[in-house]
Amino acid sequence: MKIRTLKLQNARFGRQWCDEVEHHWVYDDFLARPEWKEGWVSFDCALYEPADDRVYLGITSFDAGQILMAYDRKAGRFMELGYSRVADPFDAKLHRSLVKGPDGCVYAAPALLHCLDRYLEAPGAAVVRFDPARGQIEKLGIVLPHVYVQSLILDQPGEVAYCLCFAPEYLAAYDLRTGRSRVLALLGSGYGGMAQGENIVPDDRGCVWSSWSLTRAWQTEPGPDAIRLCKYDPREDRMVFFQKGLPRPDGSYGYAKVEALFNLGDGTLYASGANGSLYRIDPDTAEAQWLFTPVADRPSRLASRPAGEAKPVATAFNPTRT
Asked: What is the pTM of this model?
């Protein structure tokens, strides 16, 4: 197996994160320094399209115009897709919100990097559609005013975009035909941290799965069993908030935070949590079974899988190394 690295930016920041940025930065700091605004980037999601042999890329960047790009495997180069023509300055990244629709177009919606002091100034995330056949890009409409999108999926007909939002942590539905949107649920209050994982996922019946959190406002934090599972059932147009989550691998009291959710096509769902552990979930009852922990002796996350694969691929993550 040959592994190549593909460099989008030729930038080095040394120890600047540790020495200057972490716990010290505010949003305007990155806008004021061109080398940070343009060069401090990361890849957040990817979508391979066999028809044009391109990898569509969701990127984190304070330069809003470059958060959607592609890598053309035939040409061996990165491509701009014209996002700068529709970008708003507060568009900061495509987190887990890059999907192909049944019409052959690529759909996305941006997440945020700004803080709450800019909440009313920022317009909110718009659903974006890129047509690879025509090379056209357009913003269809803002999902919710001032609110941004962490994860986006489409329903099977490709008529509704379900959006996992932050902040607040809404689950919302955006009708691609009418441009109308509505809030389906509030999943977390921010009390004790984010309730959501990396993404939302549909089960084989079209229900949209996520995690949610108790508030327990009488306490100083919601507790070790606060993160639980939920789903939106479009056939009944209702949310189901399950009173159970991912059991901890060591059997201790409480539930593990959901990292990511997967539908592998076998009729059940899967989730990762607790240092990259893999779980199987019954889509009828939300009963979760711990299967294994791939890397138990260092910080790890199981957060993605290649499209078309029958199993998720674990990514080991060490926060002290790059």
From this structure: 0.91
